[in-house]
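Appendix B. One record, verbatim.
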Amino acid sequence: MSDWTGGYVADIAYTHGYYAELNPLRLRLAFLRAGFAFPEAGVACELGFGQGISTNIHGAASMTGWYGTDFNPAQAGYAQELAQASGASVHLFDEAFEQFCTRSDLPDFDFIGLHGIWSWVSDENRHLIADFLKRKLKVGGVVYISYNTQPGWAAMAPLRDLLAEHAEIMGTPAAGIIPRIDASIEFADKLLKSGALYGRVNPNVAPRLEAIKKMNRNYVAHEYFNRHWVPMSFAKIAPWMDEAKLTFACSAHYLDHVDGINLSAEQQALLNEVPDRMFRETVRDFVVNSQFRRDYWVRGMRPLTPIERVEGMRRQRFVLAVPRDQVSMKVTGATGEGTMHEDVYGPILSFLSDHSIRTFREIEQAVEADKLNYHGLVEAMMVLVGKGSVHPVQDEAAISAAASQAQRLNRKLCDQARYSDAVNVLASPVTGGGITVSRLDMLFMLARAQGKQDPQEWARFMVSTMNVQGRRVLKDGKIPETSEAEFEEASRIAREFQSQRLPMLEALRVAC
């Protein structure tokens, strides 16, 4: 491995994932729920942007200016290509933190995001990041940081170290990272099946190894095989944030705000007995066996008055971002899977089912007859947004201003769908963020953008595009016996897209 990597996996690209928590617009609802003032994100930064999907989506779908770096030049090049396509105010570099964090031409930021990167870099780089946060985050600004944490990694961490060590010592570098990953997993599997006492004392390790076997190798390489991999407890990360003059605000994972799906009554009572809010977070991590945290930290935390919280919440706008009949009435928290009560969520979803933008106050008034009070509705909206069924909405001026650049980015991504299924998200100027779509959705949208008028034409375009690559349209998981049957299935999918998905995408201003 070349010296410039600093122990970070660089000979295989990171996944093309999209992470909604990096959308600054989302922090409003979480901060209102927690009772703290929040900034308007005029300029933002992402450190370690990977393929740059999130940065480019959020830059194109809003009027927030974005900066960022990723030291992998192949990834940075792809991200820059997307930024050029959208024409949004997105400035991306392929510099290591040492170079980027000391640039003299960077503005001060309202929002800085770090997704996962904190767990994968050396302490030297963590010091560089902490210093950057201290110098470049504005007063009132917010840092989003996600990281692997204890105690959820306590049992698995030794095996992770074994996997990485096996790849480094026993693997053949010339073979590439994927064969070394596969060999490491095979060795660890043999170890556990040999009856190793470690596996017997930690029975949950074997199922997690089985899960790793099925994961995308690009993800596994970056998640498990970096040299400087450290799962850090909340108590250990707090001093790093304190060094940057930051105060913990709240979780960026909306479902964490809903105690009923994460904590028993006894556990809630236990946490209520802990007066120190920082220590309470540490205790809560033990209660839920936290493995991955997504946190907001703020410089200069200012509590809102009760009136400010209520008025701010009532002004917040929302939109249903999936077809109504596709909203699952299941929600998963630390306590397992629960069922969302139809008498609570049904009226909300019915009111939002036409995908019109509604304020919290309008929703509140619409469900008054169903006796859902303000606090109950706040919790319900946290669940719906946490599940990805409902999205917060930005103001009309921002929607109008971002529409054309979002469309240009989407056209680029839809065009890429002709030969790749790596990206499954498009930019919505309504939400200021990303909307999950399938590759087939993107091909249908591309066909429409090219002037094809009806589902049969869309289906024909999709089938021909797929067939050129040796791909087929499946029916019930199988390849249809004839080309006519394949086209019939493609036409059915296209008609379903027209009737169900397309109206929603049009309401969200997702166009290409």
